[in-house]
Amino acid sequence: MLTSKRCICILLLLFMAITADAQQSPIVTLKALLNSVDQKAPTLITDSAAILIRKAQAAETRNNWLPDLTLNYQADVGTSNNVTGPYFGLGVVPSSSGGIHNTNVTTALSDNLGIAALNWEVYNFGKYGAQNKVANADINVEQNQYAQSKYDLRAYTISNYLQLLRLQDFLGIQYRNIQRTEQILRSIMSLAKSGVRAGVDTSIAQAELSKARLNYIELNDQLKQVQLQLSAVSGLPYQSIEPDTTIEKTLIAKSSAYLFPADTVNHPIINYYRSVYENNLQRESLVKKLYNPKISVLAAAWGRGSSVDASGNYNSLSSGYDFQRGNYLVGIGISYNLFDLRRMQLKEHTQKASTDYAYKKLQEQQQLLAISANQADVEMQTALSRLKEIPNQLKAANDSYRQNLSLYRNGLSDIITLDAALNILYRAETDYMQAKYDYSNALFRKAITENQVDAVLNLLK
């Protein structure tokens, strides 16, 4: 009978353990989170649409060479009563009538006119090619801006993921602090009942316990806020974002992982600013060719009819709607505005200033990345040194707390001394947690700066 009860108890315990494990959210690795961000981040979806706009604009630019072929037709009723004389056609010219009578004639006539006109700018000394190169450079800038947005978002995600690990560690420390404070309170209450300790010790312990619980609540809220931020960029439910707690341990165990070489060839930030600089160079070339002479092929064919014949007789209006005469005209024209030379010089000066600015921004980003990588190296070395020393502090603080707790229980110490020992242990644990975070954060910051995030992620397999 006893054996059966034991078996039932064991089975119940196993069932409870399996159920509790099933209810736990699966771990979301950093690599899986970054993949989700790459696919679902709203800002990246928007930026990818901007690339399509640039590609459409480039297709539009490539078709600038197409000729203008204009078809016109009109049928009119009116008078043809004018005097001969030249004029500038400023604005709308309502009629091309001519003076064929010595007197003022107001008799109505009809006419029609059909025109097919071709204007084709066949050669402009490289302007079309320069426009296409600028359009392609615009696409390249947009694509590199997308890559930079992706790079920045990955950095943001990694930073928040490490912050999530830090807060989880902090919650664990706070939970242990609550347990220790509850243990102290139970000891005080037991000693107070027997008259060994004063009731004021109970009040002090209860205040410390309440403070520890409030800190735990605040930390839990901070953790949820970080989960919400990661959910916004990854599309994952925030409750399901549980970080892999083995990351810091793995990275610390492989402290030589930061010796990877910097990727300066395909760095998203450098590529973006380099593409902006190259885009400005292409625009300089376009400015030089924008004001070149233009060689055009001109052609026109037209037919015309009128109710007035060659002798000046006004026939029926219906006779004016048949084409009676046909003509064509073909020619080659060249045009150049002499004052465009000055305009080109001014525009070129402005564009050169813009190009120089883009080049200086490129140099600035290269220097900033180099400085950031050096800072990360220093921070990693400092964090490693702290990680080597903190275990001594942690062991000493833990021993001090246990000794003071034992002395207090035996009436050989007071609550103030015990509370101080508890705070020293709490600080030692938080120092260790912070050192682990500082190292991991510095390592990833160096990896991000040198575009070697994938190299670090491969260490976490």
From TrEMBL:
<keyword id="KW-0732">Signal</keyword>
<keyword id="KW-0472">Membrane</keyword>
<dbReference type="GO" id="GO:1990281">
    <property type="term" value="C:efflux pump complex"/>
</dbReference>
<keyword id="KW-0998">Cell outer membrane</keyword>
<dbReference type="GO" id="GO:0015562">
    <property type="term" value="F:efflux transmembrane transporter activity"/>
</dbReference>
<dbReference type="InterPro" id="IPR051906">
    <property type="entry name" value="TolC-like"/>
</dbReference>
<protein>
    <submittedName>
        <fullName>Outer membrane protein TolC</fullName>
    </submittedName>
</protein>
<dbReference type="InterPro" id="IPR003423">
    <property type="entry name" value="OMP_efflux"/>
</dbReference>
<feature type="signal peptide">
    <location>
        <begin position="1"/>
        <end position="22"/>
    </location>
</feature>
<dbReference type="Pfam" id="PF02321">
    <property type="entry name" value="OEP"/>
</dbReference>
<keyword id="KW-0813">Transport</keyword>
<comment type="similarity">
    <text>Belongs to the outer membrane factor (OMF) (TC 1.B.17) family.</text>
</comment>
<keyword id="KW-0812">Transmembrane</keyword>
<keyword id="KW-1134">Transmembrane beta strand</keyword>
<dbReference type="GO" id="GO:0009279">
    <property type="term" value="C:cell outer membrane"/>
</dbReference>
<dbReference type="GO" id="GO:0015288">
    <property type="term" value="F:porin activity"/>
</dbReference>
